[in-house]
Amino acid sequence: MEFITYETEGEIGILTINRAEALNALNSQVLNELERALEDVDLKKIRVLILTGAGEKAFVAGADIGEMRGLTKAEGEAWGRKGNAVFRKLETFPVPVIAAVNGFALGGGCELSMSCDIRICSENAVFGQPETGLGITPGFGGTQRLARIVGIGRAKELIYGAGKIKAEEACRIGLVNHVYPLEELMPAAKRLARAIAGNAPIAVRSSKKAINEGLWADMDQALEMEEKLFGGCFETHDQREGMTAFLEKRKADVFRNQ
């Protein structure tokens, strides 16, 4: 692939959008390659993904305006549909995904980060949905995910005003979990990934499913789903090992993902 690089460190996969000369802007090829990269992840081995951008200036500075400028109404809808399909694949990916936001995360870049489970960023990060200043709406889930993450009022202010916010403000309103100096961002992302990867993978995946799907169900349905996922853990080797180790006051052996 030309614009996506993928490497592994043990049970951690690292996806990097590598189009630094265009500040990692999203075009059709980047979206296609990102989709293919997700399909190629070996879920028998990988327990956590980290998603980041190449260089020190941008995570993803936005969608490619040159590619979008001449779209018709139908083509615009198709473009939004394509981005939403890829981002939804990321959002529902079986293992947790950490966005390590290293610089600009504007428009499609902000939307991409919001499709990840957890966002951490560097001190030079800038977030925003500037689309209304370009004559369009956010098209890759920004109108939906931003309001769910930071609240309706703040989301409307950012989207209507085409506003941008810096890292500390993004952390204050809950858009990101932590802010680090740029040189510490990837080490921090890997520490977090290793901590997650060290827990029982089936339990982690089931927790992700319960949280993501339960948010949009009523409470009774959500609790019923949680009960089934909770019960399913008791069929696993990892549950037996984890609880046995606790009772025997020892560290659990490596979880087998079984």
Q: Note poorly predicted spans.
A: none
Counting DSSP H or I runs of 4 or more residues, the number of helices is 11
Strand order of the largest sheet: 1-2-3-5-7-10
User: Approximately how much helix is present in the residues?
Assistant: 40-55%
The residue-averaged pLDDT reads 97
| Structural class estimated from helices and strands | alpha/beta
Q: H/E element string? A: EEHEEHHEEHEEHHEHEHHHH
Termini separation comes to 32 Å
Strand content: 15-25%
Question: Overall 3D geometry?
Answer: globular
Rg measurement, Å: 19 Å
Reported for the largest beta sheet, the result is: 6 strands, mixed
Number of strands: 10
Overview in brief:
By secondary structure, the protein is of the alpha/beta class. The protein contains 11 helices and 10 strands. Helix 5 (142-150) crosses helix 6 (152-160).
Descriptors:
258 residues; alpha/beta; six-stranded mixed β-sheet; four-stranded mixed β-sheet; 48% helix; globular
Provide a descriptive summary of the structure in words.
With 258 residues, this protein is α/β, with parallel strands linked by helices. It contains eleven helices and ten strands. It has helices spanning 28-40, 65-68, 73-91, 108-114, 142-150, 152-160, 167-172, 182-197, 201-214, 219-233, 237-247, and strands at residues 4-9, 12-17, 48-53, 58-60, 97-101, 104-106, 118-122, 126-128, 164-166, 178-180. Strands 1-2-3-5-7-10 form a six-stranded mixed beta sheet. A four-stranded mixed beta sheet has the order 4-6-8-9. The protein starts with a strand and ends in an 11-residue tail after the last helix. The model has no long low-confidence stretch (mean pLDDT 97).
